[in-house]
Amino acid sequence: MAKQCRHLDFVRTDRPRSRGCEECLKLGDTWVHLRLCRTCGHVGCCDDSKNRHATRHFQATQHPIMTSIEPGENWSWCYIDELAMELPP
């Protein structure tokens, strides 16, 4: 049986709160790719970015699901279940 995410009820938004990584914008820093928190709309940089703000957001809030907001990508990740998936926007 395929593993399924147990945290889909945390998906509340598909609207980013900013046009870039919120913390990097405040710091005047750069990022590689952007991730959207599906619980609150926070935008953070990916783990390939030096600051890893999307993961740090999860660690601080326990909001489990983030979605790539890079053009051409439509995958999401549940940090708790360690599961990649596709979610509707």
Set down the secondary structure blueprint:
Blueprint (H helix, E strand, L loop, with lengths): L21 H6 L6 E4 L5 E3 L7 H9 L3 E4 L7 E3 L4 E3 L4
Antiparallel strand pairs: 1-2, 1-3, 3-4, 4-5
In short:
The protein has 89 residues and is α+β, with helices and mostly antiparallel strands. It is built from two helices and five strands; from the N terminus they run αββαβββ.
Task: Explain how this protein is built.
The protein is an alpha+beta fold and 89 residues long. The chain has a single domain, classed as Herpes Virus-1 (2-Layer Sandwich), CATH 3.30.40. 17% of the residues lie in helices and 19% in strands. The protein has 2 helices and 5 strands. A hairpin with a 5-residue loop joins strand 1 and strand 2. The mean pLDDT is 95.
What would the keywords be for this entry?
17% helix; five-stranded antiparallel β-sheet; 2 helices; alpha+beta; Herpes Virus-1; 89 residues; 19% strand
